[in-house]
């Protein structure tokens, strides 16, 4: 008998991302604990890289959220830009978490100033609006982008090299004491990066699903 | 020969609101100045009262904005919640203004602390997220709602009485030195309210269209 | 086989408080999930009501934390003033959470402005220093005290009446959209208060232990 | 028939600056729109470079503002340090705008973090006090000075080289998404700089006079 | 042999105010310590109640400051609005303190949130700009005015009654833990008010002259 | 006849530090002024470098403070981390000042943005929590560490070289207009550093004892 279901929605259509998210959540699956079910938004874009993508997936997210049954205790939106967060909160009878918001909140309990590793520079401005709306700019150290496209992200050694480089600058130049992976799909690098840089590294999916565990019945 | 067109979109389907907005902009129409054209989003909801309404009109706004020709110098979204502001800015080749953002910016040049008169209490939280994202919470005195529904808003004497009552509390209890009408459709009360309360009152549509005039070619 | 132990330390010597905390955490205990073990600091004061109390329990907390074995994945300090949080974080090899900090972080995902129900007015100033250090004052609606002493808190109908009264003022006068029980020992009122007031109510112990679940191996 | 007069006062005595300001405002002059009249404060210093200069021009500004007739709808103080802004607002029956304040407000609608190009490093501290009083430090990316004196500013190729250099640092190192020309006399470089750097560039005089257009009768 | 002179300038022409300030500084006069000399700005207005008054006294303050000899170690401007503070700092070779700024800084070491008792409501907005420029709005509880004119202030029992009333509201409704007398001339009520209200009360003249003692040679 | 005693407690056991503090306070000792008595906490650690050190000295500080007689007008805690500040304030009948808090407050009257020179990088996070609790992050330019251990600090030429280097970076890269020596034992370098860098440099012990002079009877 489960104590409810946590639905994790990857709002893009790339199943490899969903699989990666699913894999990263293993430690949070307990027998007798909430089931954690990961979904792919098949009609979504291959990746969420613009405000237009965010606008496009919002309606899809609303529809998908409506399909969840009574056993749902929480919905997690697995994109760092938290698309549809406000509207899903309004429309859902269970708790709703965005991985961007949850990651920042978790980071605030791990270090005085947080730094964020984004994929593309174009998303930093959007993220900053979120941090402002969250009222946490006094804790913000900086955000820097890997600047890698999807093909480049598949090159693991190149991605790792950039993660190290960007993480070091956030730690040493910007004064970050904790780093956030500003993307749903980088969780596999988390432990190695934390070890290499000597600072805590937050996987936003783990942060959000952990919060969702608190809704267990 | 005009110096360009400012397109003002009322994102709800109530043509009376569009007409009211249009009427309030008379003083900003100059011969030789930009044309100011007001649009109704016929497929939008009768009013925008929820996050679901905002999500629903965003796609409509994107489509409408795409229909504007090369003579467009600016687009103004005439709803205080600024639906679609980020995505229209990303997708448009001309400047885009939201009346909520513009009203707050104008108020910052009119008094040290601003107060906002909302229509419904349910929208205050959404507005606060915007003020946070704008980084202006140190200037925020308070926001209070009229608590009137659409039918009640048609009763002008009742609306006026509530405007006075709410405005006085914002001024006297919350310390507001300037008031913002937190809605596109209250412009007709602006001058009387400013006179009755002795503080500047900002009509958000005028604030945004004024900013748009600066884009004149 | 457990996935580690979460140690929850009540830093006062009142075993009834520990029992209440223990009872409130039932929904977070999963077979196969982390064990949640509650401790009483027998040498601590009967309650923590002053900076002197905080100073006094800090050394006790350090000693107790050192006694935990390798299976510890997290330590939770079950006092809303978060005594010893910084030093335990420095001295421990596992994660450390304070229920005050965790409650505020959880509240930030539940409403735009949070209100806090303290037991005694004298602790509000101390809490405000924490919110300032957390950098979240832009999200703070207000904090008000029940003003009840230990004997009065044992009178459940009186406590309930004050919770309702103070909660309503935080919601209606201060604009709080989410309330925090600013004390480890009020968890049994949480659901009833949330239902009575129509806003989410955060139990700080649940908030912190939920965060700790994310440390599961 | 005009809809009122906007009086723009250059508070220094350098008529070339006034002429430059006047030229930059061409696009805001509409037949039927407000007249825009630029004034030189002949008794002012050649440039405003110190707190002493600001103190000295304040009395002159008050006197000049008093000389404007009933047709004045707005007064614009054309110095980025906004000398006399508070006192002119108190003493005038029409709206008063400072180009520093207006530029920052306009920038807030153009990018999440603003950067400012000052002429001399000594004025940055003064500007920061203004941004603080405006409550917008969370949106501030940085301010850097050209470090050019009046003679050097007359060397256009040198000025252009420094504008590019300083603008790039604000954009790339400080994260500015929008730049402000922190001086009344740099407007002629605006469009070229925006094109060269790929970010919006705000001319403070245009920002203030645009705001003033909203006062049209 | 003195260790230098602290010049305290009352920027209004009311010698009774200067005398009151002088009397309040008795405890800071030590044999062998800095001499504390109080000055009246005879050409200043009877009181400083407007931005125009501030503009008017600035030139007088600059002239008076220039008259001080080499033995000056500090200049204190004894008006809570800190007229001329920036320019005197720029023009003087010794340290310059404003009693408004100094009072707020002293209050920050006496309680988590400060409240201010102003004389007239019209000055509150001006003071708020200063607190914003100081960056201390997160510590600000509120400011309320006595609403008494000069004649009424001479009625000591009426003044005392209003001080009590306003101080109680700041303490009980606004949450102030420390109160500032927002005026140079209320020092004689300080101790009685602190005793009556049970919170520290800051006399801004004492706060500023104390800071000035640190410049002793 | 003295006007009371200011007790300055060095919370570490290194008497050389106490002697240095004592020497730096010479200019604040006036015949007829408060006596300034410096104490060494003999049972304290050789230096305060961790949260554990802070926890350890707190009880010692409470005990020492209790030993002071009725003539005490103020207690100064001479460690930049302000150990025990809250509890001593609660437990003492006289005023209590921490040199960290006092230094920041003094710096706020000396420049718009303050920079801090710490000894070790590990203390920066702790200091940032304090600045946050003080609510002054908008005035914070940066903090950088010398990175010298106790032995290296005894090498005066090496210490001086690092002070210059770190101070220049704070001034030139971080925009600090005033520097704080973030340690009780660097006072002997203050004047030379201010002269070399051309910005005010605050000795935290002088800042705190100066504030304490205001408590003179």
Automatic annotation (TrEMBL), chains A, B, C, D, E, F:
What's a Gene Ontology MF term here? amino-acid racemase activity
Annotated signal peptide? none
InterPro entries tied to this protein = Asp/Glu/hydantoin_racemase, Hydantoin_racemase-like, Iso_Racemase_Enz_sf
Question: Looking at the record's lineage, which domain of life comes first?
Answer: Bacteria
In terms of Pfam families, this protein maps to: Asp_Glu_race
Q: Known PANTHER family for this protein?
A: PROTEIN DCG1
Stated family = Belongs to the HyuE racemase family.
Q: What is this protein called?
A: Asp/Glu racemase
């Amino acid at each position: 008998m489960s104590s409810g279901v946590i639905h994790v929605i990857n709002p893009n259509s790339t199943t490899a991302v969903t699989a990666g998210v699913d894999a990263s959540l293993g430690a949070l699956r307990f027998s007798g604990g909430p089931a954690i079910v990961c979904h792919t938004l098949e009609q979504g874009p291959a990746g969420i890289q613009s405000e237009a993508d965010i606008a496009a997936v919002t309606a899809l997210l609303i529809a998908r959220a409506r399909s969840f049954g009574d056993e749902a205790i929480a919905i997690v939106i697995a994109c760092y830009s938290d698309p549809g967060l406000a509207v899903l909160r309004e429309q859902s009878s269970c708790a709703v978490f965005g991985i961007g918001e949850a990651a920042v909140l978790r980071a605030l309990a791990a270090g005085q100033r947080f730094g964020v590793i984004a994929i593309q520079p174009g998303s930093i401005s959007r993220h900053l609006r979120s941090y402002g709306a969250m009222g946490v700019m006094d804790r913000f150290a900086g955000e820097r982008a890997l600047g890698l496209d999807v093909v480049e992200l598949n090159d693991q050694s190149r991605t790792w090299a950039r993660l190290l480089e960007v993480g070091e600058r956030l730690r040493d130049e910007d004064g970050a004491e904790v780093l956030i992976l500003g993307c749903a799909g980088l969780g596999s690098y988390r432990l190695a990066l934390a070890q290499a840089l000597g600072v805590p590294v937050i996987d936003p999916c783990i942060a959000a699903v952990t919060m969702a565990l608190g809704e267990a019945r």
